[in-house]
Here is the input.
Amino acid sequence: MARKKDNKLKPGMRVYCIGDEKWKHPFRGVIEFVRESSVVVIIESTHEEDDYLIDERHGKTVVNKKKIQVC
Here is the structure.
């Protein structure tokens, strides 16, 4: 049986994220909930070139755990 990896990402943590190919710059957010290999992040701040993505994604986005750094 495979051992479950202990993950330190928890809801409420502030994180820096690298989004999918639409994002030109990293952004900052708060983890809403954690999935197996990704997290749902509430977007707090972005570079001005990426501001339109906040409205497009209704203030939230899914990010791979490998592309997150805790603030």
About this structure: The chain has one domain: 14-70.
